[in-house]
Amino acid sequence: MQILFNFLVCILATTIGGISGVGGGVIIKPVMDAVSGLPVATISFLSGCTVLAMTITSMLRSIGGEVKVEPRRGTLLAIGAAVGGIVGKQLFDIVKDAGGSAVSVAQQVLMILLTLGVLAYTLNRPRIRTLDVKNGAACVVIGLALGVLSSFLGIGGGPINLAVLYYFFSMDSKTAALNSLYVILFSQGASFLNTLIGRTVPEFEWPVLIAMVVGGVVGGTVGRSLSRRMDNRAVDRLFFWLLLVITGISVYNLIRCFL
């Protein structure tokens, strides 16, 4: 039953992630924190693998579509995110080695603060004047920051990527969603390779990983198909409600850390 539950959660999360560009880990990670009983390192690894499979699927499905990745800025962001993915994984290991519930508390607090910040930005987005950053170094630095957050939190990228792409690059919702998935692909890929090379793969059950990855592939396929049929306003509404759900789950998980 637990494997089936994880499979269904991954399909739902990555379908929503494929549409909105949040990746899916932003749902998978807090839900598994709440119900799985697995160590935080195992949850982060399983979530990261699922998101990686989902983003690969989504990017392949996007080939030939109307919405495109920005070749220059998107790639510079992705390069920065790849480096950030490695840094974020190292930061995660440092906090985890501190012992106790330190890493779980740090993840939940940071998730709540970031999600509330993105929610505030989303509500005021029509009144906020956006930028159009073109400087290459700035793009790499922004990607680096996104990669660190993505890898440390084990969520892929989540709503933070979208808010950053909206504000710094003046992208519309669907363009930001696809470029966000592109950035997530690089950050999670780098984090995954760093885990393998550093031999820090946590203990996990293969049936659970396989079920989650398959769910990520299915969700990524369905999500990109649905995205092509939705307009920017529909994507924005989905993103808004997703932020509320993520905040609620993260608050619940934080309270559980102290019980």
Mind sketching the topology for me?
Blueprint: H1 2-20, H2 25-35, H3 40-62, H4 71-97, H5 102-124, H6 136-153, H7 158-169, H8 173-197, H9 206-227, H10 232-257
List keywords for this structure.
single chain; 259 residues; mainly alpha; globular
If you had to describe this structure to a student in words, what would you say it looks like?
- The chain is mainly alpha-helical.
- It has one domain.
- Helix content is 80%, strand content 0%.
- The chain has helices at residues 2-20, 25-35, 40-62, 71-97, 102-124, 136-153, 158-169, 173-197, 206-227, 232-257.
- Helix 1 runs parallel beside helix 9 (206-227) and helix 2 (25-35) packs antiparallel against helix 3.
- The longest helix has 27 residues, at 71-97.
- The model has no long low-confidence stretch (mean pLDDT 89).
